[in-house]
Amino acid sequence: MLKGIPKILSPELLKVLCEMGHSDRLVIADGNFPAETMGKNAIVIRMDGHGTCEILEAILQLFPLDTYVEHPVNLMQVMPGDPVETPVWESYKEIVKKADERGADAVGEIERFAFYEQAKTAYAIIATGESALYANIMLQKGVV
């Protein structure tokens, strides 16, 4: 056991977060995201029993967001015409606001298929049990 480390962060995930360098990306994926397909060149960490918000909140206690890009946090845009509500996005923005002085301005959106392409280049993908639709979030690591 370690002091000050959120218990939800496994030793495997802590190792990955530590290994990541500046500009590396981490995807926290909802339960519908094709993590294994997108993560063929990434480390895929299974956290099926957890939701994206609790994982994001724990990670951002340790993980610096990139200050050299406008949006170090990106969400997958809803497809035009898809009648999906995304209340989880407001939760993400509140969590980011606590971790980064830019607040919600640090959060951007990426078109769905462009998000998939960027996810293919991620250092790691966390596969969660999140049931909210369009709850995928990508973080870009900064420096300490």
Describe this structure as you would to a colleague.
The chain has 144 residues and is α/β, with parallel strands linked by helices. The chain has a single domain (22-140), classed as RbsD-like domain (RbsD-like fold), CATH 3.40.1650.10. The protein is 28% helix and 19% strand. The chain is built from 5 helices and 6 strands; from the N terminus they run αβαβαβαβαββ. The protein has helices spanning 11-19, 35-38, 52-59, 88-99, 112-119, and strands at residues 25-29, 43-47, 73-76, 107-110, 124-128, 137-140. It has a 6-stranded mixed beta sheet with strand order 2-5-1-6-3-4. Helix 4 links the parallel strand 3 (73-76) and strand 4. The mean pLDDT is 97.
Q: What is the CATH H-level superfamily?
A: RbsD-like domain
CATH class, named Alpha Beta
C-alpha Rg (nearest Å)? 14 Å
Order of helices and strands: HEHEHEHEHEE
Instruction: Name the average pLDDT.
Output: 97
**Total helical elements:** 5
Find the structural class using helix and strand composition: alpha/beta
Number of domain modules? 1
**Sheet with the most strands: spatial strand order:** 2-5-1-6-3-4
Shape: globular
Strand content: 15-25%
Question: Roughly how much helix do the residues carry, as a percent range?
Answer: 25-40%
Largest sheet: 6 strands, mixed
Q: pLDDT below 50 for ≥5 consecutive residues: which ranges?
A: none
